Amino acid sequence: MKIKLLPVVFLFSTFIFSQKNENHIYFGDIHNHCNLTYAHGDMRDAFEAAKQQLDFLSLTPHAMWPGMPGKDDSRLAWVIDYHSQAFARLRKEGWSKYVVMTKEYNEDGKFVTFIGYEIHSMVYGDHVALNYSLDAPLVEATSVPDLMEKLKNTKAFVTPHHMGYLEGYRGYNWRSFNPSMTPFVEIYSRHGLAEDDLGDFPNLHTMGPRNFEGTMVSGLNKGFKFGVIGSTDQHAGYPGSYCVWVHCSVEIQINHYISSI
């Protein structure tokens, strides 16, 4: 069985295509946010919306920001409090509710859910940890490489997103690329297209100018091999979608497709 993640984004798609039980397109979103931390939209409403139009989903709470800048600048105290308080809320009660609801909505063969969370990094770029197990814990880490090290013996992926920003300003750092933990990278979201620094799609949300060194083409030029995905990075509790193209003789659960990458 082979799986190929297509570098095509389908926003808020509501259909599935199949042909002779061999080729299927499944729609889902594994990077999006609700009000678990600093985003909007009720978590249950997000699951319900996704279930109406998607086949697989990971709601993605913002979980940590090791080395958060600005601690010596009083002007940024409110920014630090904003993030730190959200992380504390997640650990106090949000995470347990999130795991319970993720399990509740998981229906084998109908609607597949995953546990995931986001880690910010000025140095390495922002990443999402996507876990195969619905009992996966929130793993504390001091950096993105530290998170990868702690997850290396589990079935989990750690994937970068909005890669095209400046390195050192949450853009991707290809020197930290770990192919065993990062089989694919997210090159499209509401942050725009990070195929290269001249991407065709404008940003719907921006954290600064694009920079070629973090983009997909830069990684290919360095000889790295990886798949590409698009996610929404939606912050309003309304997951969108991308697709996976699957060729197989029998239909199996979507989570088996993802785990076979």
Spell out the key features of this protein.
single chain; 261 residues; alpha/beta; 4-stranded mixed β-sheet; 13 strands; globular
Describe the protein:
This protein has 261 residues and is of the alpha/beta class. The chain has a single domain (2-259), classed as Alpha-Beta Barrel (TIM Barrel), CATH 3.20.20.140. The protein is built from five helices and 13 strands. It has helices at residues 43-53, 77-105, 144-151, 216-221, 254-259; strands at residues 2-9, 17-19, 23-29, 56-57, 62-64, 112-113, 115-119, 127-131, 156-160, 184-189, 192-193, 227-230, 242-247. Strands 1, 2, 3, 4, 6 and 13 form a six-stranded mixed sheet that branches. Strands 5-7-8-9 form a four-stranded mixed sheet. A hairpin with a 3-residue loop joins β2 and β3. The longest helix is centred in the middle third of the chain and has 29 residues, at 77-105. The radius of gyration is 18 Å and the shape is globular.
What is the β-strand count?
A: 13
Q: Which segments are poorly predicted (pLDDT under 50) over 5 or more consecutive residues?
A: 1-19, 241-257
| Secondary-structure element string | EEEHEEHEEEHEEEHEEH
Inertia-based shape: globular
Measured by DSSP, the beta-strand proportion falls in 15-25%
Number of helices: 5
The total domain count is 1
In terms of topology, how is this protein built?
Blueprint: E1 2-9, E2 17-19, E3 23-29, H1 43-53, E4 56-57, E5 62-64, H2 77-105, E6 112-113, E7 115-119, E8 127-131, H3 144-151, E9 156-160, E10 184-189, E11 192-193, H4 216-221, E12 227-230, E13 242-247, H5 254-259
Parallel strand pairs: 3-4, 4-6, 5-7, 10-12
Antiparallel strand pairs: 1-13, 2-3, 3-13, 7-8, 8-9, 10-11
